[in-house]
Write a sequence for this structure.
């Protein structure tokens, strides 16, 4: 059911949200998603900035900064900083991005999670359902 470029479009859109967070342009996120579910911009900013301050970390990196965390697991799989997968029921795609700080240092406390849900008219609805969650 995945249309040819749905995966690439979801990745590009997810990266826009990562970059808005990295630039502290939290107000832009509402225009990049269709449904914030239980989140609002003030809560999102409070969670991200509070987590950074609590851990005495620099700002979050942009989406093009690659993580220095590159383990190969026992089963041969390699950790991926950005992940996208199709839901088994064919209803859409899931997107996850592990944030980094300070030029690629892993920041496992925060992972961006988005849902891209197919609508009846063939578009994808962007849902900030899980939003920012512990890594």
């Amino acid at each position: 059911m995945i249309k040819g470029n749905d995966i690439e479009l979801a990745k590009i859109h997810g990266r826009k949200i990562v970059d808005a967070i990295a630039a502290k342009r939290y107000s832009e996120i509402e225009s990049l998603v269709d449904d914030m579910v239980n989140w609002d911009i003030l809560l999102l900013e409070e969670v991200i900035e509070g987590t950074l301050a609590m851990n005495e970390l620099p700002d979050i990196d942009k989406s093009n900064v690659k993580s220095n965390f590159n383990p190969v697991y026992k089963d041969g799989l390699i950790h991926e900083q950005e992940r996208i997968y199709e839901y088994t029921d064919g209803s859409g795609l899931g997107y996850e991005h592990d944030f980094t700080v300070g030029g690629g240092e892993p920041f496992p406390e925060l992972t961006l999670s988005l849902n891209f849900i197919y609508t009846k008219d063939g578009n994808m609805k962007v849902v900030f359902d899980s939003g920012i969650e512990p890594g």
Q: What stands out?
A: Helices lie at 6-22, 29-32, 41-54. The chain is about 25% helix and 30% strand. The radius of gyration is 15 Å. The CA atoms of residues 14 and 61 lie 14 Å apart.
